[in-house]
Amino acid sequence: MKKHVFNASILWAFLSLALWATGCSDDDGYSDVDGQNPTLSLTTEHIQTAAGRSITIEGAVSDKDGIAAIQLECTDLNLNKTIDLIEIYEKPLETYELSYNFNIQKDEIGEQFTIKVTVIDVGGRSVSQDVLVTMDGDFENPTFTIAPDKNVTVLIKAETKFSLNFSVSDDRFLDYVTIQIPGVDGFEPRRVDAGGKKALDFSEKIILPNEVKEHNVTITAVDKEGKETTVTSIISVSELPDFEKMYLADVATVAELNSDVFGVPMRIERTGPYQYQANYYNEKAGTEIFFLPQKSAFTPICFGLDPEDTNKLTDDPDVAKPIVLEQANMYYEITIDILNSTYAISTYTIAEAIDPIPHVYGSNSLDTWADGGSWLQEFYFGYMTSGPTDVKRFTQDKTNPHLFRLDDPLSLEAGTTMNFVIHNWHSNGWWNYCTWRVDNSDEPEIFGYYGKEAVYTNPAWTKPDHVGDNWAKPTVNTTGKYTLIFDAHLERAKLVPAN
Fold this sequence. Notes:
Shape: flat
CATH topology of the largest domain: Immunoglobulin-like
Largest sheet: 7 strands, mixed
Structural class: mainly beta
Helix content: under 10%
Number of domains: 4
Number of helices: 3
Distance between the termini: 58 Å
CATH architecture of the largest domain: Sandwich
Number of strands: 37
Strand content: 35-45%
């Protein structure tokens, strides 16, 4: 069948031909029935959208003579589409449900556009309506960039206090935030107006009863369109607990604690009751560190040097001083005992550190058939989302061969759930040859060497497997570019905003 082609330049020719046929039977048996214009009823004449999103133009079309075509035009959006119903259905239609999807370019900077929708019947009669497209759509719920951990411990003191800190943002406009902490005298449920701004920061010291008790915190952010996001936290008031997890923080601000996708602060090892050990690579002299039992803030507990006796630790974030690591390009081992408020620091060199990597990185020593060299390939590894034939290659640090990073940042959108492991490249898809998996897919903290066999691994690497076949699947909170950094000796990785 001959294809019917419609565009803006030949639309008039099509209309003229159709008008010539008005009132006459054509060779295909089409003829005027009522001589009326087509009818077009759009679902909406105003679409709110945003750059990079898809819009749908919908409506009901009818004509007793038969609909020949529907034209959609907007020069500013480079839209010039004709839906040729005779071509599609081999005949005109009396009724048609219009539903046309169109993608707005990601780099679109215009604020509003008009799309003209024209319906043409076989008699050449037409009707047009305009659809206003504005770039002020609200599609995202508010996002908490800083919020209390799901479980937070507050120590009983002469004044038992909890610093409630959060930051929330919205792609359009925030309306208000509500805060509820039932059972705390003096703290009534409250509403904090955001005034239509895109972001709101909140900080307040809350005095809690000096008794062992749990308090539920519920914070709900609502935007101008009524979309809302809620975060909850359980505040446990107690004497010093034996924390299951402890973290090393090497950043200076709460924003930096929360700007990563994972890896900041860094999980350390629990070695016994109230005792923890941190192994850490110090790239620059003068790095300041603290130890935290919560991930998102330096309060309510922060272990650092006691200013009255720097040989001891304090848990008070208002007075704690950082532990300063003075030697660059050195591995540190730091042990802390939070019950006795003691700590010890030692160092070891890059050469003394070991990792499970089976070959010299970048060498042609990947023996595919294990026969001594019938097929040697270059050995490297990196970020893998599908299989070993498709790996984003890590760059090995020039000073520390245990340290790797992606030179090209990952561009990630808010709400994206990632899916990756660290794995070696191979042309025919070997699995579990040289690979690192994670302890927890949703919130990865340890990237452990997985599925190792003696023939593949540095014999000096005796650390036991402590992860399962878990791919890293964290959810991205904030759209941006991120750098992946991995230490094969520490079995730690972090995904942080690119500089």
